[in-house]
Amino acid sequence: MSYQRSLILPGARHSIPILLWLALGAAVGAAVGAAVPAGARAQVSLDPLPPGLVAAETERVVEIVDGDTLVLAGGRQVRLVGIQAPKLPLGRPGFKAWPLAAEAKAALAELTLGREVTLAYGGRRIDRHGRALAHLIEGSGTWVQGELLARGLARVYSFADNRALIPEMLARERAARAARRGIWRWRFYAVRGAEEAAQHLGGFELVEGRVIEVAVVRKRVYLNFGVDWRSDFTITIAPRTRRLFEAEGIDPSAYEGRMVRVRGWVKSYNGPLIEATHPEQIEVLEE
Length: 287
What we know:
The protein is 20% helix and 30% strand.
Protein backbone atom coordinates (compact mmCIF):
# COMPACT_ATOMS: atom_id res chain seq x y z
CA MET A 1 0.00 0.00 0.00
CA SER A 2 1.36 3.43 -0.86
CA TYR A 3 0.67 6.76 0.77
CA GLN A 4 0.81 10.30 -0.48
CA ARG A 5 2.43 12.59 2.10
CA SER A 6 0.79 15.87 3.03
CA LEU A 7 0.99 18.32 5.91
CA ILE A 8 -2.13 19.54 7.69
CA LEU A 9 -2.08 23.31 7.23
CA PRO A 10 -4.85 25.74 8.14
CA GLY A 11 -6.34 27.42 5.12
CA ALA A 12 -6.24 30.89 6.61
CA ARG A 13 -2.77 30.89 8.11
CA HIS A 14 -0.79 32.28 5.16
CA SER A 15 -1.50 34.94 2.62
CA ILE A 16 -1.59 34.08 -1.09
CA PRO A 17 2.06 35.14 -1.67
CA ILE A 18 3.46 32.79 0.97
CA LEU A 19 1.26 29.93 -0.24
CA LEU A 20 2.62 30.46 -3.74
CA TRP A 21 6.17 30.63 -2.40
CA LEU A 22 5.74 27.39 -0.47
CA ALA A 23 4.29 25.64 -3.51
CA LEU A 24 7.27 26.73 -5.59
CA GLY A 25 9.59 25.68 -2.77
CA ALA A 26 8.04 22.21 -2.66
CA ALA A 27 8.69 21.87 -6.39
CA VAL A 28 12.30 22.87 -5.83
CA GLY A 29 12.52 20.36 -2.99
CA ALA A 30 11.30 17.59 -5.28
CA ALA A 31 13.88 18.57 -7.90
CA VAL A 32 16.60 18.49 -5.27
CA GLY A 33 15.46 14.91 -4.57
CA ALA A 34 17.55 13.76 -7.52
CA ALA A 35 20.95 12.40 -6.52
CA VAL A 36 23.35 15.02 -5.20
CA PRO A 37 26.98 13.91 -5.33
CA ALA A 38 28.92 14.21 -2.08
CA GLY A 39 30.32 17.69 -1.73
CA ALA A 40 28.14 19.12 -4.50
CA ARG A 41 26.00 22.22 -4.07
CA ALA A 42 22.30 21.84 -4.76
CA GLN A 43 21.98 25.64 -4.46
CA VAL A 44 18.90 25.66 -2.23
CA SER A 45 18.23 29.38 -2.18
CA LEU A 46 16.14 31.88 -0.23
CA ASP A 47 16.26 34.65 -2.79
CA PRO A 48 14.09 36.61 -2.35
CA LEU A 49 13.67 36.16 1.39
CA PRO A 50 10.23 34.58 1.98
CA PRO A 51 7.59 36.03 4.32
CA GLY A 52 8.08 34.93 7.91
CA LEU A 53 11.83 35.60 7.99
CA VAL A 54 13.60 38.79 8.99
CA ALA A 55 17.20 39.22 7.80
CA ALA A 56 19.55 40.62 10.42
CA GLU A 57 23.33 40.74 10.77
CA THR A 58 25.93 39.32 8.39
CA GLU A 59 29.16 37.86 9.79
CA ARG A 60 31.98 35.53 8.82
CA VAL A 61 31.99 31.92 10.07
CA VAL A 62 35.23 31.01 11.84
CA GLU A 63 34.53 27.61 13.44
CA ILE A 64 32.24 24.62 12.95
CA VAL A 65 31.14 22.91 16.16
CA ASP A 66 29.07 20.11 14.62
CA GLY A 67 26.61 19.61 11.79
CA ASP A 68 24.14 22.23 13.01
CA THR A 69 26.19 24.63 15.15
CA LEU A 70 28.91 27.12 14.23
CA VAL A 71 30.78 30.14 15.57
CA LEU A 72 30.87 33.63 14.07
CA ALA A 73 33.85 35.98 13.98
CA GLY A 74 32.41 37.96 16.88
CA GLY A 75 32.49 34.84 19.05
CA ARG A 76 28.78 34.11 19.03
CA GLN A 77 27.52 30.57 18.48
CA VAL A 78 24.66 29.97 16.06
CA ARG A 79 22.36 26.95 16.25
CA LEU A 80 20.81 26.33 12.82
CA VAL A 81 17.16 26.52 13.76
CA GLY A 82 14.66 23.95 12.48
CA ILE A 83 17.04 21.05 11.89
CA GLN A 84 18.91 18.37 13.79
CA ALA A 85 22.13 17.07 12.29
CA PRO A 86 23.76 13.82 13.46
CA LYS A 87 25.35 14.43 16.84
CA LEU A 88 29.01 14.35 17.85
CA PRO A 89 30.16 13.52 21.42
CA LEU A 90 31.52 17.06 22.05
CA GLY A 91 33.07 15.95 25.32
CA ARG A 92 30.02 14.14 26.69
CA PRO A 93 31.23 11.04 28.57
CA GLY A 94 30.03 7.78 27.06
CA PHE A 95 28.27 9.50 24.15
CA LYS A 96 28.95 7.85 20.79
CA ALA A 97 28.85 9.82 17.57
CA TRP A 98 25.71 9.23 15.52
CA PRO A 99 26.19 7.84 12.01
CA LEU A 100 27.33 10.50 9.51
CA ALA A 101 28.02 13.08 12.25
CA ALA A 102 31.49 13.82 10.85
CA GLU A 103 30.08 14.07 7.33
CA ALA A 104 27.41 16.54 8.45
CA LYS A 105 30.04 18.70 10.16
CA ALA A 106 32.20 18.59 7.01
CA ALA A 107 29.24 19.62 4.86
CA LEU A 108 28.48 22.59 7.09
CA ALA A 109 32.14 23.58 6.92
CA GLU A 110 32.10 23.35 3.13
CA LEU A 111 29.00 25.54 2.96
CA THR A 112 29.99 28.20 5.49
CA LEU A 113 33.51 28.10 6.97
CA GLY A 114 35.37 31.29 6.16
CA ARG A 115 32.32 32.71 4.40
CA GLU A 116 29.96 35.54 5.16
CA VAL A 117 26.51 34.38 6.25
CA THR A 118 23.36 36.35 6.97
CA LEU A 119 21.27 35.39 9.97
CA ALA A 120 17.51 35.38 9.33
CA TYR A 121 15.07 35.01 12.21
CA GLY A 122 11.57 33.57 12.18
CA GLY A 123 10.80 33.13 15.87
CA ARG A 124 12.67 32.96 19.16
CA ARG A 125 16.16 34.34 18.58
CA ILE A 126 18.23 33.00 21.50
CA ASP A 127 18.19 29.54 23.11
CA ARG A 128 18.83 28.67 26.77
CA HIS A 129 22.54 28.23 26.01
CA GLY A 130 22.83 31.76 24.63
CA ARG A 131 23.18 30.61 21.02
CA ALA A 132 21.50 32.50 18.20
CA LEU A 133 18.61 30.55 16.63
CA ALA A 134 18.65 31.49 12.98
CA HIS A 135 18.25 30.39 9.41
CA LEU A 136 21.55 30.95 7.60
CA ILE A 137 21.93 32.37 4.12
CA GLU A 138 25.41 32.02 2.65
CA GLY A 139 26.76 34.91 0.57
CA SER A 140 25.80 33.33 -2.76
CA GLY A 141 22.20 33.01 -1.57
CA THR A 142 22.29 29.35 -0.50
CA TRP A 143 19.90 28.51 2.35
CA VAL A 144 22.12 26.37 4.57
CA GLN A 145 19.33 24.48 6.38
CA GLY A 146 17.67 23.62 3.07
CA GLU A 147 20.97 22.44 1.60
CA LEU A 148 21.76 20.13 4.53
CA LEU A 149 18.25 18.66 4.42
CA ALA A 150 18.50 18.18 0.65
CA ARG A 151 21.76 16.27 1.09
CA GLY A 152 20.19 14.02 3.72
CA LEU A 153 22.50 15.29 6.44
CA ALA A 154 19.84 16.58 8.83
CA ARG A 155 16.25 16.04 9.96
CA VAL A 156 13.55 18.63 10.57
CA TYR A 157 13.55 19.47 14.29
CA SER A 158 11.06 22.23 14.99
CA PHE A 159 9.63 24.03 18.01
CA ALA A 160 6.41 25.86 18.78
CA ASP A 161 8.27 29.18 19.16
CA ASN A 162 10.19 28.81 15.87
CA ARG A 163 7.88 27.61 13.10
CA ALA A 164 9.06 29.58 10.08
CA LEU A 165 9.61 27.51 6.91
CA ILE A 166 8.74 24.15 8.50
CA PRO A 167 6.67 23.03 5.45
CA GLU A 168 9.56 23.97 3.16
CA MET A 169 12.02 22.02 5.31
CA LEU A 170 9.71 19.01 5.48
CA ALA A 171 9.51 18.98 1.67
CA ARG A 172 13.29 18.82 1.38
CA GLU A 173 13.53 16.13 4.05
CA ARG A 174 10.91 14.02 2.25
CA ALA A 175 12.78 14.32 -1.05
CA ALA A 176 16.07 13.23 0.54
CA ARG A 177 14.39 10.33 2.33
CA ALA A 178 12.68 9.15 -0.86
CA ALA A 179 16.09 9.17 -2.58
CA ARG A 180 17.67 7.35 0.41
CA ARG A 181 20.31 10.05 0.59
CA GLY A 182 22.67 10.50 3.55
CA ILE A 183 21.16 9.56 6.90
CA TRP A 184 18.14 7.96 5.23
CA ARG A 185 20.26 4.94 4.26
CA TRP A 186 20.79 4.19 7.96
CA ARG A 187 18.44 2.19 10.17
CA PHE A 188 19.48 4.51 13.02
CA TYR A 189 17.36 7.29 11.47
CA ALA A 190 14.57 5.16 9.98
CA VAL A 191 10.92 6.10 10.33
CA ARG A 192 9.54 3.79 13.03
CA GLY A 193 6.22 2.02 13.00
CA ALA A 194 4.02 2.83 15.99
CA GLU A 195 4.50 -0.74 17.21
CA GLU A 196 8.28 -0.13 17.38
CA ALA A 197 8.16 3.07 19.40
CA ALA A 198 8.68 1.35 22.76
CA GLN A 199 12.08 0.17 21.54
CA HIS A 200 13.27 3.77 21.14
CA LEU A 201 12.44 5.45 24.45
CA GLY A 202 14.51 8.57 25.03
CA GLY A 203 15.28 9.10 21.36
CA PHE A 204 14.18 11.70 18.84
CA GLU A 205 12.18 9.66 16.36
CA LEU A 206 9.84 9.83 13.39
CA VAL A 207 6.93 7.48 14.07
CA GLU A 208 4.16 6.41 11.67
CA GLY A 209 0.90 4.62 12.23
CA ARG A 210 -2.87 4.81 12.14
CA VAL A 211 -4.72 6.71 14.87
CA ILE A 212 -7.23 4.20 16.20
CA GLU A 213 -8.99 6.56 18.60
CA VAL A 214 -8.92 10.18 19.71
CA ALA A 215 -9.73 10.70 23.38
CA VAL A 216 -10.00 13.92 25.41
CA VAL A 217 -9.33 13.71 29.15
CA ARG A 218 -9.41 16.93 31.19
CA LYS A 219 -9.02 18.90 27.96
CA ARG A 220 -5.84 17.03 27.01
CA VAL A 221 -6.03 15.19 23.68
CA TYR A 222 -4.71 11.65 23.26
CA LEU A 223 -4.20 10.14 19.81
CA ASN A 224 -4.11 6.41 20.48
CA PHE A 225 -2.46 4.03 18.02
CA GLY A 226 -3.62 0.78 19.64
CA VAL A 227 -6.52 -0.71 21.53
CA ASP A 228 -4.65 -0.61 24.86
CA TRP A 229 -3.88 3.02 25.71
CA ARG A 230 -1.92 1.83 28.76
CA SER A 231 0.79 0.25 26.61
CA ASP A 232 0.42 1.29 22.96
CA PHE A 233 1.96 4.33 21.29
CA THR A 234 0.21 7.67 21.87
CA ILE A 235 0.53 11.29 20.76
CA THR A 236 -0.64 13.77 23.37
CA ILE A 237 -1.67 17.40 22.87
CA ALA A 238 -1.82 19.63 25.96
CA PRO A 239 -4.78 22.00 26.45
CA ARG A 240 -2.74 25.11 25.61
CA THR A 241 -1.37 23.38 22.51
CA ARG A 242 -4.84 22.24 21.52
CA ARG A 243 -5.83 25.87 21.37
CA LEU A 244 -2.91 26.46 18.98
CA PHE A 245 -4.12 23.63 16.73
CA GLU A 246 -7.66 25.02 16.77
CA ALA A 247 -6.44 28.56 16.03
CA GLU A 248 -4.81 27.08 12.93
CA GLY A 249 -8.11 25.51 11.88
CA ILE A 250 -7.13 21.98 12.91
CA ASP A 251 -9.56 19.83 14.90
CA PRO A 252 -7.46 17.08 16.57
CA SER A 253 -10.45 14.72 16.45
CA ALA A 254 -10.03 14.70 12.66
CA TYR A 255 -6.89 12.59 13.06
CA GLU A 256 -8.99 9.57 14.07
CA GLY A 257 -8.68 6.81 11.50
CA ARG A 258 -5.86 8.58 9.64
CA MET A 259 -2.35 7.42 8.91
CA VAL A 260 0.02 10.01 10.38
CA ARG A 261 3.71 10.61 10.97
CA VAL A 262 4.82 12.42 14.12
CA ARG A 263 8.31 13.51 15.14
CA GLY A 264 9.59 14.17 18.64
CA TRP A 265 11.25 12.70 21.71
CA VAL A 266 9.75 9.36 22.73
CA LYS A 267 8.87 9.29 26.43
CA SER A 268 7.34 6.60 28.62
CA TYR A 269 3.90 7.31 30.07
CA ASN A 270 1.35 4.51 29.82
CA GLY A 271 3.45 3.20 26.97
CA PRO A 272 5.59 5.16 24.50
CA LEU A 273 4.42 8.73 23.95
CA ILE A 274 5.34 11.82 21.95
CA GLU A 275 3.97 15.20 22.99
CA ALA A 276 3.00 17.42 20.06
CA THR A 277 3.66 21.07 20.88
CA HIS A 278 2.76 22.52 17.46
CA PRO A 279 0.74 21.35 14.45
CA GLU A 280 3.66 20.84 12.06
CA GLN A 281 4.93 17.93 14.15
CA ILE A 282 2.09 15.79 12.77
CA GLU A 283 1.94 14.96 9.08
CA VAL A 284 -1.04 13.19 7.54
CA LEU A 285 -0.16 10.34 5.16
CA GLU A 286 -3.04 10.26 2.71
CA GLU A 287 -3.97 6.79 1.44
